[in-house]
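As the next step, I selected for study a record pairing a protein sequence with its backbone structure tokens, which the following lines show:
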Amino acid sequence: MWKTSTLIFFTFFSLLSLAGKAQSGSLPNNPEGGRQIVKLYPNPATNFINFEIQQHNNDRIYDLIVYNFLGKKIDQIKGISSRTTVHLDNYYNGLYIFQLRDQRGNLVESGKFNVVK
């Protein structure tokens, strides 16, 4: 079971990386020459996690999509521009993957965070 879950996770994360490269032409975590756009804290999180968009032009609007360890979409927050807090009441312990997408659906950045309750 553990080997199967690990294989599914790495396959899913690899597909996320390839999708980001195909859509943006660069690595999803480094869209602007190594500068990350999303700062998230606290990580690991217990009750909530904050996502803060670090950029100079705050008129851009993004969607934040959260997937669980197995690749199932857990949450989607639309229309964020600078900062949002995600309450983790309905989240279980474990590793989650987030995607930040622009209004056209292009992957801007992806990453992971851990929930510990």
Q: What stands out?
A: The chain has one domain: 34-115. The chain has a mean pLDDT of 80.
